Write the structure tokens for this entry.
Amino acid sequence: MRWVVEKKVALMIPVDSPGIPVSEISQKTGVPETRVLALLRQITSNNIFREVRPRVFAHTTASAVLAMPDFSTTTDLILHFTDEGYKAAGYLPEALDLYGAQFDEVQKPELRTAFNLAFNTDMHYFDYIYTPENIPKYGERFGRSMMGSGREDLINSTLDSYDWSQFKPGDRIIDVGGGVGHVGVGVAKRVKPGVEVIVQDRPSVVEQGRKIHGHIVKLEPHNFFDREPIQGANVYYLRLILHDWPDSICRTILGNIIPAMGKHSRILIMDALWKDDEYWVNGKDDKEILERWTSVKRDMALRTLHMTSKLGIPFISRE
Amino acid sequence: MVGAKERTEEEWHALFASAGLKLINIYAREAWQSVFEAVKV
């Protein structure tokens, strides 16, 4: 999958094409034909591309989505998972043996994870991807990939649960570690005119974000491992930040904000609420849970169909 | 599931308390992401 997305194979096959020969994909990717054939035949088993006749490949609905410009940040998310994610996953057992016991005890300089083993570095993941030489490949891709994970309907369902209309002109809302500002924009749409939304992140991310969302929100450089510089804001919110860190380091991150908080300040954390028993499915013949999972799968299928029709892609089955 | 380190309601309460905060509200409990509102103790 990573190879297909990195080489932009989906863009080499026109969506309405009856198929192109594998030799053409081989020529464009610079990979021998037999290797390309093996890779594509593997991935067709997941309904991504279809071999319409021997050595000729066309799109399915799933592969056609990969070719859509609207989906480009999601392909960045796929690369984030299949590159850094899969490599790190391969070292998870070793990392648990080596570092598991100390994971919730250490501070950032001592924190080691499977990523460190996979990439042969002592740097933390975020420091690694934002070193100047890694920004073009990893840092910028991570920024875009978070837009891919932040699909508007998912962001809306979270943001709509909170009463953003309570804030008055002059109030300030700080998006701590807010990436390129894609959620800050969602907040800005929900507050009254005159309420200031300020997105904070690393300098290179801020630079990237200003080009995309700088006309809607203010973006300022700040590292949440330093003391929060904006005093007395009404809200400091962190979306999908704390799930990246063990408790010991979360306390440091929150501890850098607390001194800046005023009497009316609050912290909002947008993150997962884990419900142990509800996610426990295997080994339990529970009708309600099975029905719920069926409903989730149906919802996902409907979302895919909705997205493809919105993008103008006809539904293409393997058959 | 969001992935990474997911926390139960009790774990969120404990984390906030240990940082010097008090969790006062949880919104969007059924959504992919919930909203946890905390104030300084």
About this structure: The longest helix of chain A spans residues 287-310. Chain A has 15 helices and eight strands.
